[in-house]
Specification:
By secondary structure, the protein is mainly α. It is 64% helix and 1% strand. Helix 6 (96-107) runs parallel beside helix 8 (140-155) and helix 32 runs parallel beside helix 35. The longest helix has 35 residues, at 1245-1279. 37% of the residues are buried.
Length: 1397
């Protein structure tokens, strides 16, 4: 140290002080003009200064001036860290008061902290807090001071530098309580938006470290997920995605170090599935890379997706659910889908470590696809569906990331070979999607596809066909793959299994069709795509297919013609498809079929059908070896598609035929000759079978055989002949327009004769029309979109045969029938004397036959259209636009509707009149059924509007409700307008007429109204529901079908809660008709005339079905409400206001529906139900009480959560259930048991089995009631509300065998009474008021059988403390007497089982 002046002589006389040291330091550090005593500047003062400092440092008393000065001089820049660390090491020498001053000084600079460097001094806070909270020296005041400092820090504004510093320091504040920790995290996540992007990864890492120390793990994870998953697009999106990738790596590393963090991530999504965003998905994908959480994390994602789909599926058609909740379910389903897709699309931003998780998840979703639900949403609402979503996920990875492609293909191959048929179909659709969209990329993986093709003969028929169907789009780019496929098919054709040969035949046809389609579309050039491979593959891509696969595979196809009938049918249908795609191939197809055709239709002799050679005996049964009708179907359509002498075929397409090349002239001559042979043969066949009997047509031998064998042979021949007749009808009708008007009359006569022949052949073999339809075209209720394939044309096995009659032919048959009707009516009205009666009868018979045949064929035709895929080339040919069938069907309904008879004129005999009426009724039924099926097919598409317009153009027999029609015409929506007019003009008058006739066809009309009504808004539905309700009130009928159909219509169209109100009213009226007290019942209800003794059973069944549906909706609503409760109790709120509103709306709707259900069931308790309806009622009661128990259980808050009071609606529901349902339920069971005991005496085995079935439900019902009341007791305790004040606790719960003899007046009754009193017990809170025993109840004691019922119930375990409290409370009343067993009289429960809850 240097000095500026001489040392004074008297310096030693003045001792040094702390202030002198501070002044000396200020003089040298600041270089100020501060005046100092001369002795301090003298060199001789060094020794005294050092001596003083040494003695002062060893002094126990701190120096306040020194500490204040040193703190003020500590720098706060980036170079001050060592100084602060040095100062922090000396803080332990300061006094508590001095430490507080240091803390206050540090906090005074909070407002000046902008960057992290400015916050260096805050590193001293943990040391200061530890010194102040020293357990040895600290007092309560110091602890309160520390808490006040924390509160001051939390209350001030945090800049980004201070926020970062506090996150790094928070792990040192382990002493904070839960509230301050939560407040600190809330402060952090509210200010994290201001943090620079480059600082986010380090900040998140600090937060994860903080969480690993036990600092509010759930809130830390939730905050990070919500921040990165928020909808706001902040700053540079691409940079942020890169940062998110780094954060995911931090999360993955943190979970590996601390597995409890992974558990919190999983629990966050599991506790509230609405806490879902793209970053949540990415975090779960990242966590899934940790082996311990792999299955669990992906399982949570799968559960979240499926739950969102289920909620949307159930809510969109749920009447009682508020509209805002329906919209919320739709938005949540879209949110989950978009989050998954976004998380996968952002994997390219530094997230390569999650690729295996994404691949595993995609295939997990594909394996979750249920058969028949691959396209259940249809995309109309914006919801993709689980299959399309998983294909998009895997397709995105396949397109963007090279490293994932081989793994995806390997996984496809493994699953196709290992999974069952239903599970492997979605995998095949994924493979087809990849082949079609990324064809050039897939060329690199041809060897994988070859390995799959090697298993062709070992796969199921559907799977093998789907596999080749998926690969076919790639064949046009790879000749090697094409050659290998053909080689596999050649081998398959020599297998012994029929299914393998059928599959191989389909593949042959599909390969040929693919080649023709490729040439037609000129699709050999690649489409421009950013996802395609480089030009290095052009040599492989530019390869062309062979000149003609049909010619090359001619030998295989010839072999197919000697296989089983199924194989031949595939060839015949495939050849028609080939001509449809390439009309120029028609002549060559006819040449190909000529040798085979001539085996059955020889030209050197008179025409003779070779039907006898089409049947063979195998295993003692006649089977069809040659489907001759399908052969004629194929040839007839080719002739219709290939007009005679057409020369529009290009000259360069001359095919080599069987090794010979023909000139164009020779080929044309050969073609004309072939065409002439086929056409003349069809004409000869038509002329041959007209007017012939079956024996003449078939040429049956006169060999004597058994009657049964002869009958089987006759039926087999008839089956083929009936098909030939239909083919001829289709050929003649389709070719009808080409003939001049003069010949059309003769051709129409031939058509009528063929129809008569068809009818007579059916009658001779004893084959009903409905049975014929069921055999020829099996009905199917499949939705046509269920098997819609993703991205490629499937060659899956056709479940049904292609109809032999086209839509246009059926339409022409209707026109012919109308023409016959008009001519017959004109003759009858003219009253001509020369009109012979026999001719009139013949015309009437022909007309009835044409109507009957056409309607039968029409029903099967419309239904079979659902079984053929849209990609099938035969669908537009055979089915076309089926809308044209609508007007003829409606016209038939008008003609056959009850009223004027079908044939007017002179009075007929009674027998003939009854026969005509039955035939008319059957035709009306078929016409309505066809109309219903047609409207159902077009109900979900855009063609419904046009169909309704065509139907409304049909002139009605009467114009009623013109005012309603005029009102409906003002509706702006075209679809709703047409539906309303059709309802008012057509359906309602027709329903009224059929109700007057007591016709069962009213059920079909009501189904049509329901199908159309689904497309109407609620206000229009309500109008039709009111109309149906009024009909149900005023109608008088004993027809059960009419009663049930009208009630179903009224309830379905009435909006909630009006639908359940109608059910409540109807149930009360049923009680008046079939009540327990027979003396007080009536034959007919006064309010609802339709309810009487005849219709009561069907109406009861309808109401019980409605209750069953309502309980199912309650189950879903209860689970949905549970999610809102959990989120509320755990303070998981993404949108607090919306969640609370949705929760209250759902709760009110659920309680309202439960209340209506109680009112309905309470009426059934007072009815005299028999047999199956009583058992059904018991099962519904069990399910309902189970739902009530779950509702009450949810109202009980878990430990650590605030208990809320139940709402008034809930209390009203509990009160109503106790009064109206629980109390009268026990007498109902007693009465039912009494009737059962009386029935047992008849010793009927069927009755005894029914009684055993019903008695299985009784113990379960009693258990569910007691379980429900137990939860009510628990809720009453925690809320201090007496919810059981209106309940009459069951006074006799033990099963008692009721004997026929009267019980003695003494011991047994007295003991039962005493035992019941003891079972009731006292209750300190007065939760269960004991009432006097009812002797009727005592006589019907029931066994709760708790041990058995508890095993069947899914009750969760309760808190041990609550159980102990209940046992103490119940045991504090009366002591439990020891039970004495009676011989063969009473089956007693054990003491343990008889505990009253």
């Amino acid at each position: 140290m240097t000095v500026a002046a001489e040392e004074p002589s008297h310096h030693a006389q003045k001792p040094l002080t702390d202030n002198d040291i501070i002044r000396l330091s200020q003089y040298h550090h600041c270089q100020t003009s501060l005046s100092l005593p001369p002795y301090l500047l003298s060199p001789t003062s060094h020794d005294p200064l050092l001596s003083y400092l040494k003695s002062r440092s060893s002094s126990p008393s701190p120096s306040k001036p020194v500490s204040e000065y040193i703190f003020c001089q500590i720098p706060s820049d980036s170079d001050s860290l060592k100084t602060i660390q040095l100062f922090g090491a000396l803080l332990r020498y300061l006094h508590v008061k001095e430490i507080k001053s240091v803390v206050d000084s540090i906090l005074s600079g909070v407002c000046r902290v902008i960057t992290v460097d400015d916050a260096q001094l805050f590193d001293l806070l943990p040391v200061c807090f530890d010194l102040l909270r020293n357990p040895i020296e600290s007092k309560a005041s110091e602890i309160d001071y520390v808490n006040s400092v924390i509160d001051r820090v939390l209350s001030c504004e945090w800049e980004k530098g201070f926020l970062t510093k506090m996150v790094s320091l928070a792990k040192e504040f382990s002493f904070l309580d839960k509230g301050r920790k939560s407040e600190l995290l809330e402060k952090v996540f509210s200010g994290v938006k201001c943090i620079d992007l480059q600082d986010l990864p380090s900040l998140v890492y600090q937060l994860l470290v903080l969480a690993s120390k036990g600092f509010c793990k759930r809130e830390v994870i939730g905050g990070v997920v919500c921040f990165f998953g928020s909808k706001e697009e902040r700053r540079v999106a691409s940079v942020l995605r890169q940062i998110e990738g780094t954060v995911l790596l931090h999360v993955n590393f943190a979970v590996k170090q601390d597995p409890s963090l992974g558990q919190e991530v999983v629990a966050l999504v599991k506790s509230d599935l609405r806490a879902f965003n793209h970053f949540t998905v990415a975090v779960l994908f990242s966590v899934a890379r940790v082996r311990k959480f792999g299955e669990n994390s992906l399982g949570i994602l799968r559960t979240a997706l499926i739950s969102a789909y289920n909620d949307y599926r159930l809510s969109k058609d749920c009447k009682w659910l508020p509209d805002e909740l329906k919209e919320e379910s739709l938005l949540h389903a879209k949110l989950v889908e978009n989050s998954l897709l976004r998380a996968v699309s952002e994997c390219k931003y530094g997230r390569e470590h999650v690729f295996p998780s994404v691949i595993q998840f995609g295939f997990m979703l594909l394996e979750s696809v249920e058969e028949g639900r691959s396209n259940e949403f249809g995309g109309s609402s914006g919801v993709v569906g689980i299959e399309k979503l998983s294909i998009q996920i895997l397709g995105t990875l396949f397109e963007v990331h090279d490293m994932t492609r081989n793994e995806i293909i390997e996984q496809c191959k493994f699953r196709i070979l290992s999974l069952k048929c239903a599970k492997s179909k979605p995998i095949l659709r994924l493979l087809g999607y990849l082949v079609q969209r990324y064809s050039i990329i897939m060329l690199e993986y041809v060897h994988h596809l070859k390995e799959l093709l090697d298993y062709f003969t070992f796969m199921e028929g559907n799977i093998s066909c789907c596999l080749v169907s998926a690969v076919i789009p790639l064949i046009k780019f790879s000749r090697d793959l094409q050659d290998y496929t053909i080689l596999v098919i050649r081998k398959a054709m020599f297998r012994r299994e029929d299914t393998v040969r059928v599959s191989a035949t389909k593949v042959i046809i599909e390969l040929t069709l693919a080649e023709k389609q490729a040439k037609k579309d000129s699709s050999f050039t690649l489409q421009d795509s950013s996802s395609q491979a480089s030009s290095s593959q052009h040599n492989e891509v530019s390869c062309t297919m062979r000149g003609n696969l049909f010619t090359e595979l001619n030998g295989l196809l010839q072999r197919c013609l000697y296989q089983q009938a199924k194989v031949k049918e595939v060839v015949y249908d495939g050849l028609v498809k080939l001509v449809l795609i390439d009309p120029s191939s028609g002549a060559h197809v006819l040449d190909f079929l000529m040798p085979h055709f001539l085996r059955f239709f020889r030209q050197d002799i008179d025409i003779q059908l070779g039907i006898t050679s089409c049947i063979k005996v195998e295993g003692g049964k006649f089977i069809v070896e040659e489907p001759l009708d399908r052969l004629l179907f194929c040839i007839s359509w080719i002739l219709l598609l290939q007009p005679h002498n057409s020369s529009d075929r290009p000259s360069d397409t001359a095919w080599p035929c069987f090794g010979f090349s023909l000139t164009q002239e020779n080929e044309q001559a050969r073609r004309n000759a072939s065409h002439e042979v086929y056409s003349s043969t069809l004409v000869k066949v038509r002329n041959f079978i007209l007017g012939k009997k079956l024996g003449d047509i078939v040429g049956l031998s006169q060999d004597t055989v058994s009657a049964s064998v002869e009958e089987d042979k006759r039926k087999s021949y008839c089956l083929i002949t009936l098909g030939i007749v239909q083919v001829l009808l289709n050929y003649i009708i389709t070719d009808l327009e080409k003939h001049p008007e003069g010949k059309k009359g003769e051709i129409e006569k031939d058509i009528v004769d063929l129809v008569d022949l068809y009818e007579s052949l059916e009658k001779k073999v004893g084959k009903s029309k409905q049975g014929n339809i069921g055999k020829r075209v099996r009905f199917s209720s499949r939705n046509k979109s269920d098997d819609t394939d993703v991205g490629f044309a499937s060659i899956n096995e056709e479940r049904e045969q292609v109809p032999l009659l086209a839509t246009s032919s059926i339409y022409q048959l209707f026109l012919i029938a109308f023409k016959l009707y008009s001519s017959k009516s004109a003759c009858d009205l003219s009253g001509l004397q020369d009109h012979s009666q026999s001719s009139s009868a013949k015309t009437e018979k022909s007309m009835s036959g044409v109507f009957s045949f056409t309607l039968h064929v029409c029903v099967g035709h419309i239904r079979s259209s659902l079984c053929m895929k849209e990609e099938n080339p035969l669908k537009p040919l055979v089915y076309g636009d089926m809308i044209v069938l609508g007007p003829p069907l409606l016209k038939v309904v008008y003609l056959l509707k009850p009223g004027p008879p079908l044939v007017t004129g002179q009075a007929n005999k009674e027998n003939k009149g009854r026969k005509d009426a039955e035939g008319r009724k059957q035709c009306l039924h078929l016409a309505l059924l066809s109309l219903k099926e047609l409207l159902s097919i077009y109900s979900s598409g855009s063609g419904l509007t046009g169909l309704l317009e065509d139907l409304l153009a049909v002139p009605a027999s009467e114009d009623a409700t013109l005012e309603e029609c005029s009102e409906a015409s003002k509706i702006e929506d075209p679809l709703a307008k047409n539906i309303e007019i059709f309802m008012e003009k057509v359906m309602k008058p027709m329903i009224t007429d059929l109700i007057a006739q007591n016709s069962n066809d009213i059920e079909i009309l009501c189904d049509i109204v329901l199908v159309l009504g689904n497309n109407l808004p609620d206000k229009f539905k309500q109008r039709h529901g009111s109309w149906a309700h009024q009909i149900f009130r005023s109608c008088e009928t004993s027809n059960t079908t009419v009663a049930k159909s009208i009630l179903k219509l009224a309830i379905s169209f009435t909006t909630s809660p009006g639908d359940l109100c109608i059910a409540v009213e109807v149930a009360k009226e049923l009680q008046n008709v079939i009540g327990l007290d027979k003396s007080d019942t009536s034959q007919v209800s006064e309010s609802y005339m339709i309810i009487n003794q005849s219709t009561s059973a069907s109406i009861t069944s309808c109401i019980l079905q409605l209750v069953d549906s309502a309980i199912g909706d309650m189950d879903w609503g209860t689970k949905k409400l549970k999610n809102f409760y959990v989120a509320s109790q755990m303070n998981i709120h993404l949108n607090h206001d919306d969640e609370s509103t949705f929760g209250l709306s759902l709760e009110e709707a659920l309680y309202a529906m439960a209340e209506s259900t109680v009112r309905i069931l309470s009426s059934f308790v007072l009815m005299n139900l028999k047999d199956s309806q009583a058992a059904q009622f018991l099962r519904l009661a069990v399910k309902f009480y189970k739902q009530l128990a779950q509702i009450v259980k949810q109202r009980i808050a878990p430990k650590g959560c605030k208990q809320t009071l139940p709402s008034l609606k809930f209390q009203k529901l509990v009160e109503l259930t106790c009064k109206s349902l629980t109390v009268p339920l026990y007498p109902f069971l007693a009465e039912m048991q009494k009737e059962q005991q009386e029935s047992v005496s008849s010793n009927s085995k069927g009755i005894i089995n029914k009684i055993k079935q019903e008695n299985k439900c009784i113990p379960d019902l009693i258990f569910q009631i007691e379980d429900y009341e137990r939860y009510l007791i628990q809720l009453s305790k925690v809320t201090k509300l007496n919810l059981l004040r209106h309940a009459k606790r069951s006074t006799a719960r033990d099963f008692k065998i009721i004997e026929d003899a009267e019980a003695p007046a003494g011991g047994e009754d007295g003991e039962t009474q005493a035992e019941a009193d003891n079972n009731i017990g006292g209750n300190e809170d007065g939760l269960g008021e004991a009432s006097e025993d009812d002797p009727e109840l005592a006589s019907g004691d029931l066994d709760s059988d708790k041990a058995i019922a508890a095993e069947e119930s899914d009750e969760e375990e309760k808190e041990e403390g609550e159980e102990e409290e209940e046992e103490e409370e119940e045991g504090s009343g009366f002591s439990r007497p020891k039970k004495i067993a009676k011989k063969n009289l009473v089956v007693e429960d054990s003491d343990e089982d008889s505990v009253t809850f």
